[in-house]
Amino acid sequence: LSSATVNLILALDSVPLSGPVPVILDIDAFIHKNLDSEGKELWNILDDLRKLKNRCFFGTLTELALELYK
Q1: Scanning 12, 46, 51, 60, which has its CA 20 to 30 A from the CA of 36?
Q2: What average pLDDT does the segment 39-67 reach?
Q3: CA-based nearest residue to 57, from 31, 38, 29
């Protein structure tokens, strides 16, 4: 989606003196477009936005961060 916009906000939450640091990652992917609510184009765009959001999410994580979720 070349017309898509992504807002990515990264924040720290109550940083402890030791141990893991809680992180908040907020990703908003969107476009401005008039769509038919019953058309197939809507679902294709939603699928593309989900893929874009996932690329942004996994692009912010290191291998070490991903290991914490296994």
Answers
A1: 51
A2: 92
A3: 29
Q: Under a CB-based contact definition with an 8 Å cutoff, are residues 27 and 56 in contact?
A: yes
Q: What is the mean pLDDT of residues 34-43?
A: 89
First to last CA, the chain: 31
Residue 18 in 3-state DSSP? coil
How far, in Å, are 20, 22, 35 from residue 17 at the CA level? 9, 12, 49
Q: Please name which of 18, 4, 3 lies closest in space to residue 56, comparing C-alpha atoms.
A: 4
Question: For residues 32 and 1, is the Cβ–Cβ distance under 8 A?
Answer: no
Give the mean model confidence (pLDDT) for residues 5-13. 93
